[in-house]
Specification:
The structure holds three protein chains of three kinds. By secondary structure, chain B is an all-alpha fold. Chain B has 13 helices and no strands. Classes of the chains: A alpha+beta, B mainly alpha, C mainly alpha.
């Protein structure tokens, strides 16, 4: 089942949660809504579920939710065929795990309600699926966080939803359990192939888990694309800053002068350090701190021309060869940077110490020639 | 040894606890002990005679029966009032919310004469009800009415905070699972409120058992018919039958302490279930 | 910090949902039924008090207070409350300090015992003093007999009568208003914890300085409300006082007892006039309660707004 939303807007008092948002989610895909707190991602998810209703404007076509091309905007939440997993699970405390999972089946009208035996069979099947076979008679308060999460998931799956929606599914778990649940959810999705949308503010979680990532900021969608795409080809400063570590340097001053550009972004793993004397065009930096653990070491540097601090990630072997000491002056080479010239965004690769512009399709090239570094 | 603190840097433990225990003992425990000491001084046949004469039994029936029914009536009304105050917006909501505490604040004697005036033969409501054959003042119905008034805040005030803190997600979860509003209320909301409802009911019940001021005015106080146990205690005192009065008092005390104990027990169980 | 915006959205959602949850007819029916219940049980009796009090106009209304016995009753009521409230205030603060700031065995039992008087019928609260100080009592005032002849003799020698006199009324009032301040303060001080007091101590404050300059400002509104409640009950108590009072006009009648006497003498208008005084006291108590709660809520909202400002920066 595909999901489409058209021109959704939503205000809570003076607070804008969604500003004219449109989105399509393909059948059977695992999609992440990624963004910081207050970006509108949970509101979007709740509108898809029918727990929230978009503002109704003058335009009758605005604010529509379609499942497989069919308009479900006025269908109540219980009849949309969505399974919703709440951030804090919202398990019914007074009911056993079994009764929680069976709830959706037992509230059906008598005509379409499965028999007691059928319900029991279905619940046991789900308990097996979420690996809680022996815990059916427990109360929610007697379960660990990860177990509660799986009960909530089983409860949502019991009604065989065509769409599965999860609000911050791992937000309430500690780091170790979170990792396990992530790969478990991925394998569950491979098995069931239900169209799934989940909300998260953790970029690592979104990139690792999702087929498609929807990056949201300030009530709008910034970018939609595969994990690789949004990481490698971010379309805005927000996306590049939100996804992974990045150095942000002034491009309008000192050695990095690029006409028309204000800001330069470079990922720490795209920074290389070279020993040698200062050249006329080389960017010089001073080593402030060297930290080495794992296969990569991290070096904190200070630009000599502007005094800005930035990070470099250097392979361990190379770091040993360089033999950096605090206070050493070194040359710095950027392999791949993104420039942000006054309201427009471009990117550039660096070859042989020269910036060569490689703007994404449809983006006007940056002004002027590449800069020597 | 009880009452010994774990090591603490804050001062004043000995002083505050010492004063608390001394004052509690002197003002509350010593006088209450007198009731039981006095009762234990009675012979068993004397005690039994004092607490089981027909007139006394009739007073128990009225006191416990009317108190129970009043507390019971306050359950649906209290839940409804709490629901309306928490969930709906309507003009005068804050005023109604404030008024709910009136039975706590209004002296019982005032409530008694006010209800009597309203439901007496020539009162605002009495003049309409009596011709229909419904007598309220000077009957058990009147006793039930004022005991309902006295117990009104308890269910509302125990249910209200629970309803306020009930996660909206629970109801949303039920909705996404296809439950109707009625099913959601019956199967999700009501079970969550149950401990608070039981506590509120028991508090209202306990309060009503001991109530005196409001009842004496409206009851008519006819022996065997509209005489409550607390009034009977006073009657016996006035006849200098201290032993009889004390025996009755010990029955009432055991009743209300039993309820209090039950409340504590159910609250502790509810807390443990949510720990 | 990061959670504030989503919290605000949550609050906004909650508020909006409030009116959306149920169909209109359900809302209207429930609100209607609730208002009817409140009207029948609360508003009508309240109105009845004032209507009956003013039945004969303002002149007789005020005449009810000009009566010598009425004024004596008012004086006695103020005296009883004036003794009971400060005593129970000191007790409430001490009990709350011990219970909220320290861990000790038997604490749950102590809290239950403090609430005990709520479960005791007012009639029994009076009865206990009859048993202690009555003619056949332990400390019987004139007989000097019983188990403690020394106390009876001591009281007797100084001509101090407890029962059917002012001291008995004061004692009964203390008994019935015993838990009010403590019950307000204990949960409040437990919620506040003891970090601020510990901080004050590490900064060199003495125990009393800590109490007066850190604890008291934190609990002042709860304290205030506890005192207001305690006072309302002290002035309005009927059953307990009725048992220990000699019902001697002008000497051992409090306001509620005076109301009863007037009512039983079929002086209905005067009874309601005096009762309206107590009703006004109850209404003032409710208003003060709401002011205290409103202040408390505003403090919480101010804290949330401060968080939001921090988030915006």
């Amino acid at each position: 089942m595909s999901i489409e939303v058209r021109n959704l807007s939503k205000h809570f008092g003076a607070f804008t949660a969604l500003a004219n948002v449109s989105l399509k989610v393909g059948t059977g895909r695992l999609t992440a809504l990624l963004g910081p707190s207050g970006s509108g991602k949970t509101t979007l998810l709740r509108i898809i579920a029918g727990l929230e209703f978009p503002d109704t404007g003058d335009d009758r076509e605005a604010g529509r939710v379609l499942f497989h091309g069919e308009d479900v905007s006025d269908v109540p939440a219980g009849q949309r065929g969505v399974g919703f997993v709440f951030q804090h699970y919202a398990l019914f405390k007074h009911m056993s795990v079994f009764d929680n999972i069976a709830f959706g089946l037992t509230v059906r009208p008598r005509k379409s309600r499965p028999s007691r035996a059928e319900i029991a069979e279905r619940v046991h099947e789900l308990l097996r699926l979420v690996q809680l076979e022996n815990l059916g008679q427990r109360l929610p308060d007697q379960l660990s966080g990860g177990q509660r999460q799986r009960v909530a998931l089983a409860r949502a799956l019991a009604m065989q939803p065509k769409v599965l929606l999860l609000d911050e599914p791992f937000g309430a778990l500690d780091a170790q359990v979170r990792k396990e649940m992530r790969s478990w959810l991925r394998s569950l999705h491979e098995k069931l192939h239900v169209t799934t949308v989940f909300v998260t503010h953790d970029q690592e979680e979104a990139l690792e888990l999702a087929d498609e990532v929807v990056v949201m900021n300030n009530a709008r969608i910034e970018q939609v694309g595969g994990p690789q795409e949004v990481y490698d080809r971010p379309v805005s400063p927000f996306v590049i800053e939100f996804l992974g570590n990045v150095n942000r340097l002034a491009a309008g001053s000192g050695k990095l002068h690029s006409p028309g550009s204000d800001v330069l972004y470079v990922r720490p793993h795209d920074v290389d350090i070279q020993r040698g004397a200062a050249g006329a065009h080389a960017l010089r930096a001073r080593v402030l701190h060297v930290f080495s653990a794992g296969s990569y070491g991290s070096v904190t540097l200070e630009r000599i021309d502007t005094g800005e601090h930035f990070e470099a990630e250097i392979a361990r072997d190379r770091l040993r060869d360089l033999d950096l000491k605090q206070g050493d002056d070194v040359n710095v080479v950027f392999r791949h940077v993104r420039l942000f010239p006054r309201g427009q965004f471009t990117e550039a690769d660096v070859r042989d110490g020269r910036l060569s512009e490689a703007p994404p399709p449809g983006t006007p090239p940056a002004h002027g020639a590449g800069e020597h570094i | 040894m009880p009452f010994r603190p774990r090591r603490s840097v804050l001062p004043g433990f000995g002083l505050s606890l010492g004063f608390t225990l001394a004052y509690l003992g002197l003002v509350i425990l010593l006088p209450l002990a007198a009731v039981f000491v006095k009762t234990s001084g009675m012979s068993w046949p004397d005690f039994w005679a004092a607490v089981s004469s027909p007139r006394v039994i009739a007073s128990y029936q009225l006191t416990f029966g009317a108190s129970f029914l009043a507390a019971l009536f306050n359950v649906p009304c209290g839940v409804m009032l709490a629901w309306v105050l928490v969930r709906y917006e309507f003009p005068g909501r804050k005023l109604v919310d404030a008024l709910v505490d009136l039975p706590f604040a209004l002296p019982t004697a005032v409530a008694g004469i006010a209800f009597t005036a309203i439901y007496a033969k020539n009162g605002w409501f009495g003049q309409w009800l009596e011709p229909q054959g419904i007598k309220v003042a000077y009957t058990a119905l009147g006793v039930w009415l004022v005991l309902t008034f006295i117990g009104l805040p308890f269910v509302v005030r125990t249910v209200q905070p629970i309803l306020e803190e009930l996660e909206p997600e629970l109801e949303e979860a039920a909705a996404t699972l296809g439950a109707t509003r009625g099913q959601t209320f019956r199967r999700v909301i009501l079970p969550a409120l149950r401990p608070a409802i039981i506590t509120g009911f028991a508090l209202a019940f306990a309060r009503a058992i001991g109530e005196y001021g409001s009842v004496v005015f409206i009851a008519g106080n006819r022996p065997m018919h509209t005489e409550i146990t607390p009034l009977l205690i006073i009657t016996k005192l006035e006849q200098y039958d201290y032993k009889g009065a004390t025996a009755l008092a010990s029955v009432l005390l055991v009743g209300s302490f039993g309820l209090l104990f039950f409340i504590q027990l159910s609250q502790r169980r509810a807390r443990r279930a949510h720990a | 910090m990061a959670g504030t915006v989503s919290t605000l959205a949550h609050v906004a959602r909650h508020r909006q949902r409030r009116s959306l949850g149920d169909p209109r007819w359900v809302r209207v029916a429930l609100i209607g039924a609730a208002l009817l219940f409140v009207a029948l049980f609360l508003v009508v009796p309240l109105a009845a008090v004032f209507v009956e009090a003013l039945r004969k106009g303002l002149g007789p209304y005020f005449a009810a207070f000009a009566d010598k016995d009425a004024q004596a009753a008012i004086r006695l009521t103020f005296l009883a409350a004036g003794v009971a409230v400060p005593l129970n205030l000191v007790f409430g603060v001490a009990a709350a300090w011990a219970v909220a700031k320290f861990e000790f065995r038997g604490k749950a039992l102590l809290v239950s015992l403090i609430e005990l008087p709520f479960a005791v019928s007012p009639v029994i609260s009076g009865l206990v003093y009859v048993l202690l100080f009555g003619a056949q009592g332990w400390f019987g005032p004139y007989l000097g007999a019983g188990d403690h002849p020394w106390l009876g003799a001591w009281l007797n020698a100084r001509d101090i009568q407890i029962l059917f006199a002012v001291p008995g009324i004061v004692l009964a009032t203390v008994f019935v208003t015993f838990p009010f301040v403590a019950r307000e303060l204990i949960p409040l001080m437990q919620a506040q914890g003891k970090e601020e007091e510990l901080a004050a101590l590490t900064l060199g404050a003495s125990g009393w300085q800590t109490f007066w300059r850190v604890t008291v400002p934190n609990i002042k509104w709860g304290l205030f409300y506890g005192v207001v409640l305690c006072n309302a009950r002290a002035m309005g108590e009927f059953g307990a006082v009725s048992v220990v009072s000699g019902h001697i006009r002008g000497q051992t009648n409090t306001i509620p007892l005076h109301v009863e006497i007037l009512y039983n003498e079929y002086n209905i208008q005067a009874a309601f006039a005096v009762a309206s005084l107590l009703t006004l006291l109850a209404l003032v108590t409710l208003v003060l309660k709401n002011i205290v709660e409103w202040r408390h809520r505003r403090a919480i909202e101010a804290a949330a707004a401060a968080d939001l400002r921090q988030y915006a920066q």
